[in-house]
């Protein structure tokens, strides 16, 4: 069993078999991470560029760590703003990097579709580390992995994603991945932050947290950004916290114990109360550890099936 | 010039003629039209199975000159028009400087006369407001005198209601049409694709259909308040907008509308590839909107097919979707798309389709009608309705190659034009 594509651009369209392969592979890498010596050799000799056109701490560190633990050579850069504002196009940047004989590119970009664009103009394997408001497939996978480890299976698991769904790439990747694996997915947040026609993905939409909490096994709480308030999408962080903030008094109404996830970084006591973030319900730090394992799995699966840039025929 | 177009199917919407005719043309003038003419010494052009129509006009084209000659010039734009079967184009004023001053309008007209032996007429559409900012009226009377055939801030809407009212009032004194790029700008900031399920899937910011409809609704209310103004909706794209224009016409308002070939051919599903040649404004809409467009074309709500030919270089387009400029080129694919998508499936009859690129279009911008009659200047487009061909972006005559139709197989293509005593026959 191999992945159908040589890139990881999005979870939308990936099959259950492919997702299972990634999650199973992640499980074995998770074991590697518990060993005293955490480094394994499969990507020895491969060079990976982490191109972050948007600032990021944890995703970039997580990728770099995953790459090094697989013995790849790693180069990274972060630049804020679009490449166009710098005077060099994304295409030129990518081609320059490729000219340095890079095998794989991990890209984060503020523009949706930037990884898809790169996959058409360079030969390296492309891994999407978050593109605009589109997808963040490795985050989706690590959330799925975390839930699967905690609950044993994703089949029939009831997960609600809470917050700014409209602008969230994490929400989109979660919806696609979880739905494909047989989970029941719902979303909850203020209506202006709900993307149009989201019901067509087969997710249930809630506008009241109290209504959805008793019906789910896990909440994936998204970060809310203050700038959305300025563009008139919700009135204030205070009101947001009061109605959509996940707090102990709301979760106590759940009949069973809830799993609480957050992609980070958390605005404590805004979308998620500090005590819950640090409680026994929270798997937030598990998510971080699993992030490394899932990224190792992706890099391994894409990097060891032969990339065009390094295959002998292509190099001749 | 002494030629005999032999046995072609003459489609002349002005007279309603749809029949096989021979046409004898001498020095740019139609000498005779009739069944089986015999003329000595004339160059015989066999037209059996081909269409002979009045010269097509595209009333929505961006020629980019002055100011953006790296994208297109009046000359290359006219080459593209000539290749696509157009003997006239109306060019939009979003140049630099904008066509908001009579000197620029005269420059564009003059340049049009000079290039390609004048085989393609170039009629400027002038800005409705100074620098297309929507704040103060452009010198409309002077622009009309300089040859402007319409007023538009195209690329941007005339958003301010008070200014729109005054533009309608002032323009009505000259009978010149106001062409609205319908968009409520407070709702479209940052948007790059139609807002709906596809924008949700793609994670791209949306341009809601209501932003187009709000603008048209307001304009129609203003139009009722300002009798005798002429109002034309550029590149109409939503079901709601089409329904309002249909109602407006029923109420006797002086409203007309055009649609682009891409809005009757493609849906917003195409943007999921993130190919920036699917990014245009108005955006590609849903299947339901395309069905409404088709219905609007069929029942006459949509009067005109116009391309919104919008050249951009490869470097400008080969960037991230969110930063790419809006627009695609259209002059060379318009006939093929119209015949393939509308005539072949029987949505429009040949005469109806041709009317939307000739008589109806000329009426909107107030140009005299072209007729295929003895004594008239020969202004003719020749079309092979059966030629099957594959669009190749690299082979377009336009200076820019930004088309989403590359690789698409079309049936129907211009084979040449005759105008201003010049004949052009496509060679490849």
The helix/strand class of chain B is alpha/beta
Total individual domains of chain A: 2
- Please identify which CATH superfamily of the largest domain in chain A we are dealing with: Aspartate/ornithine carbamoyltransferase
CATH topology of the largest domain in chain B: TIM Barrel
CATH class group of the largest domain in chain B: Alpha Beta
Amino-to-carboxy terminus distance of chain B: 23 Å
Strand composition percent of chain A: 5-15%
Strand content of chain B: 15-25%
Helix content of chain A: 25-40%
User: By CATH's scheme, which homologous superfamily of the largest domain in chain B applies?
Assistant: Metal-dependent hydrolases
- CATH class categorisation of the largest domain in chain A: Alpha Beta
Total strand segments of chain B: 18
In a nutshell, what does this entry contain?
The complex is a heterodimer of chains A (316) and B (428). With 316 residues, chain A is an alpha/beta fold.
Q: Can you give a write-up of this model?
A:
The complex is a heterodimer of chains A (316) and B (428). Chain A is an alpha/beta fold. Chain A has 13 helices and nine strands. A five-stranded parallel sheet of chain A has the order 7-6-5-8-9. In chain A, helix 1 (16-32) crosses helix 5, helix 1 (16-32) packs across helix 12 and helix 3 crosses helix 4. The radius of gyration of chain A is 19 Å and the shape is globular. Chain A starts with 15 loop residues before the first helix and ends with a helix. The model of chain A is unreliable at 307-316 (pLDDT under 50). By secondary structure, chain B is of the alpha/beta class. Chain B has two domains: 2-51 and 375-425, Roll (Urease, subunit C, domain 1), CATH 2.30.40.10; 55-365, Metal-dependent hydrolases (TIM Barrel, Alpha-Beta Barrel), CATH 3.20.20. Helices cover 28% and strands 23% of the residues of chain B. In chain B, helix 1 links the parallel strand 6 and strand 7. In chain B, helix 6 (209-225) packs parallel to helix 7 and helix 7 (239-250) runs parallel beside helix 9. The two termini of chain B are 23 Å apart. At the A-B interface, helix 4 of A face helix 5 of B.
């Amino acid at each position: 069993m191999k992945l159908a594509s040589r890139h990881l651009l999005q979870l939308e369209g990936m099959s259950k078999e492919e997702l299972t392969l990634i999650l199973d592979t992640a499980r074995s890498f998770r074991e590697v991470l518990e060993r005293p010596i955490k480094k394994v050799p499969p990507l020895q000799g491969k060079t990976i560029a982490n191109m972050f056109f948007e600032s990021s701490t944890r995703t970039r560190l997580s990728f770099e760590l995953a790459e090094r633990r697989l013995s790849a050579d790693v180069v990274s850069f972060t630049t804020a703003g679009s490449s166009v504002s710098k005077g060099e196009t994304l295409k030129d940047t990518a081609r320059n990097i490729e000219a340095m004989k890079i095998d794989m590119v991990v890209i984060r970009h503020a523009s949706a579709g930037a990884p898809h664009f790169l996959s058409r103009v360079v030969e390296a394997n492309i891994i999407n580390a978050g593109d605009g408001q589109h997808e963040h497939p490795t985050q989706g996978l690590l959330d799925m992995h975390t839930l699967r480890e905690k609950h044993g299976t994703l089949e029939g698991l009831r997960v609600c994603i809470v917050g700014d769904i409209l602008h969230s790439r994490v929400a989109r990747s979660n919806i696609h991945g979880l739905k494909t694996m047989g989970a029941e997915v719902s979303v909850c947040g203020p209506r202006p932050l709900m993307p149009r026609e989201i019901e067509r993905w087969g997710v249930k939409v809630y506008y009241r947290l109290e209504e959805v909490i008793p019906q789910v096994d896990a909440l994936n709480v998204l970060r809310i950004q203050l700038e959305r308030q300025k563009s008139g999408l919700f009135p204030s962080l205070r009101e947001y916290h009061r109605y959509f903030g996940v707090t102990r008094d709301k979760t106590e109404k759940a009949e069973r114990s809830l799993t609480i996830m957050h992609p980070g970084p958390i605005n404590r006591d805004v979308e998620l109360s500090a005590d819950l973030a640090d409680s026994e319900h929270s798997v937030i730090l598990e998510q971080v550890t699993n992030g490394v394992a899932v990224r190792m799995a992706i890099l391994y699966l894409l990097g060891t099936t032969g990339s065009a840039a390094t295959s002998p025929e292509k190099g001749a | 010039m002494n030629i005999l177009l032999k046995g072609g199917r003459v489609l002349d919407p002005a007279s309603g003629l749809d029949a096989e005719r021979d046409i004898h043309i001498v020095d740019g003038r139609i000498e005779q039209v009739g069944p089986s003419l015999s003329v000595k010494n004339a160059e015989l052009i066999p037209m059996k199975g081909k269409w002979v129509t009045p010269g097509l006009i595209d009333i929505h084209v961006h020629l980019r000159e002055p100011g953006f000659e790296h994208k297109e010039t009046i000359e290359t734009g006219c080459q593209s028009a000539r290749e696509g079967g157009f003997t006239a184009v109306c060019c939009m004023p979003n140049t630099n400087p904008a066509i908001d001053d009579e000197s620029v309008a005269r420059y564009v007209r003059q340049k049009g006369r000079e290039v390609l032996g004048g085989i393609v007429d170039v009629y400027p559409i002038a800005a409705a407001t100074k620098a297309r900012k929507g704040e103060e009226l452009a010198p409309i009377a002077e622009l009309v005198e300089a040859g402007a055939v319409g007023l538009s801030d195209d690329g941007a809407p005339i958003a301010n209601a008070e200014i729109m009212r005054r533009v309608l009032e002032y323009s009505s004194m000259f009978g010149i049409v106001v062409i609205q790029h319908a968009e409520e700008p407070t709702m479209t900031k940052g948007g790059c694709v139609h807002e709906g399920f596809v924008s949700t899937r793609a994670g791209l910011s949306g341009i809601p259909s209501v932003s187009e409809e709000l603008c048209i609704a307001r304009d129609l209310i203003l139009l009722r308040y300002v009798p005798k103004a002429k109002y034309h909706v550029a590149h109409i794209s939503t079901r709601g907008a089409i329904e309002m224009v249909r109602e407006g016409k029923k109420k006797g308002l002086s409203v007309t509308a055009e649609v682009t070939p891409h809005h009757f051919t493609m849906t917003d599903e195409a943007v999921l590839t993130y190919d920036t040649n699917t990014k245009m404004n108005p955006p590609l809409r849903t299947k339901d909107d395309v069905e409404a467009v088709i219905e609007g074309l069929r029942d006459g709500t949509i009067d005109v097919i116009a391309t919104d030919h919008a050249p951009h270089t490869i470097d400008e387009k080969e960037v991230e979707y969110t930063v790419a400029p809006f627009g695609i080129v259209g002059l060379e694919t318009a006939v093929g798309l119209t015949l393939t998508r509308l005539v072949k499936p029987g949505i429009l009859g040949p005469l109806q389709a041709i009317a939307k690129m000739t008589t109806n279009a000329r009426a909107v911008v107030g140009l005299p009608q072209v007729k295929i009659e003895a004594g008239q200047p020969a202004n003719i487009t020749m079309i092979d309705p059966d030629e099957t061909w594959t669009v190749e972006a690299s082979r377009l005559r336009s200076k820019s190659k930004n088309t989403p139709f590359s690789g698409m197989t079309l049936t129907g293509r211009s084979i040449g034009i005759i105008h201003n005593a010049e004949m052009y026959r496509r060679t490849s």
